[in-house]
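FOLDING PROBLEM:
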Amino acid sequence: MVIAYHEIAPKEAPYIYSVTCAQLASHLKVVSETSGHAPSDRVTVTFDDGHVSQYEYALPLLERYGVKAAFCATAGWTDHEPAYMNARQLRELVSLGHEVCGHGWSHKMLTKCTPSELHTELFQSKQRLEDVLGAPVGAMSVPHGRWNNRVLEVCREAGYRTVYISEAHIGPVLRSGVELTGRLMMTRTHSAESLHHLLTRQGRRDGRSKLKSAVKTMVRFAIGEERYRALWRKAGSRTEPLPDCIEAKQPPRILHLISSAGFYGAESMLLNLATALEKGGSRNIIGVFRNERNPNTEMAGRAEQGHLATEIIACGGRFDSRSIRAIRQIIYRHGIDVVHTHGCKANLYGLLAAAPIGVPRVATCHMAWPDRSAALRGYHSLDRLVLRGFQKVVTVSEAIETSLRRSGLRARKLVTIANGIDEKPFQVDPPSGRLDLPKDKMIIGVVGRLIPVKGHKYLLEAARELVVDFPQVLFLFVGDGPEREALGGMVSAFGLESKVVFAGKQLDMPAVYASIDLLALPSLSEGMPMTVIEAMAAGRAVVASRVGDIPKLIRHEETGLLVEPCNPHALKLAISQLLSDPARRAELAIRGQQWVSEQFSARTMAARYQDVYRAVLAG
């Protein structure tokens, strides 16, 4: 059996859980006499909250009767509240052979905590006590006696092996990976004789404890938790509020969710954002879906290379409820403050996992509605409804924000934040590496998935004329996609086999930009394309379509050249201008690099997202 005490006082006090020194002495005498050698006959003595009275009055009595006890300390009161034990006193308990256990950070009711609060109450309190003691803490007493399976699961994640609760008739029993152990809560009404009876085999078989617990549960259910707590305080003559705690310093914790088919613009933006946020002091966890049909987890690998915490979320079929449970476990395990989603699938699963447990939600939309195919339009119709459940929706361009407003999202929910990058990898001089390409060629690069909206065919139509005026030119297509075969057919039809290289996907993008003389982006539609930002950061001149937010990146004739989409002739003239005038090309490249550094750095992007997180956390 396990018995538990709270305050110890020299004389009787009105608080029902205040036991006098004389009572405790008589109890410990009974414990020392009745504890047998068999595990079923042993009596464990515990103390809750860490009252200094336990050190002053209980410790001498424990030593007198040779009883070892477990002291459950509230970490946020340690070294902060004079009525509770300090670090030196806790260390002395351990040196005398007693155990120090956890009792939360601020004595909050764990079943009412958000995931972030639960992380503080269980993880941080454990770490604080272990730092104080210089020894592991393996047991935990739940404040207010409230627990559920979720609390037990997080206790297990935090590393507790034993969890003490106030229902004396329960356990010890293995539940959710921890040993759940009920305790008899000792009050001023318990005499030595009544304790002796409870500690005997006959007393342990007494069903009154179980009945009492059932009645309490029924009353709580009937009148509600708040009224029950007020009634309990009144009955126990306890009216003073809980003391203040040392501030629990925990960086904001952001869970980013993404369902990825490779490493493209959204993935690059997310990696830049999370890396910059980490440098700013927040904690970022990258949750990547491993989809049954297309199990691409390249994003997770890139994040791990950048020393970011990652979680793989298995997802079978179009909808998998197990993925929702997995995300919720991640939220509790890491004490997540904000769930930040990227893309339709992540939006849906993020909402279903986070909304029921009250975790704030932010979504970033990387493309406008509707998309090209009927299937994607269907996904976006669902997404239109899902995003109503987010506190903030970030768009990467004003064009996308306009699209979302037209779809019914309220303007006050929307905010536009331009993509940003870490410029340093693209500004290495000399470049860390180059692709294996002929050194005597003028190389025009185009970076992006091989899909119709990227307009690759218009560049090939322009290339057919460019190679006549500039025989030394070579076109480098970086990326892969469903248009690869069709574009290859165009290359053959135009006789450009020696002038076009399909390089496929490339992992080392700084090496790609170091290998080209200028970047062409003939897209029909864009948001805030990462490839343009990266090329400008690398000091490469850019020719791009006047679509989306590209005009914010490229100020025509100042930081690059803009052309109308679907116009091969205009594309050919702009590229010709830069190929024939190296000084002009260099001037645009320098100005573009400075512009990106000022306006589109990952540092600037992260600062703007931090403002969004603060807003949703403030409610």
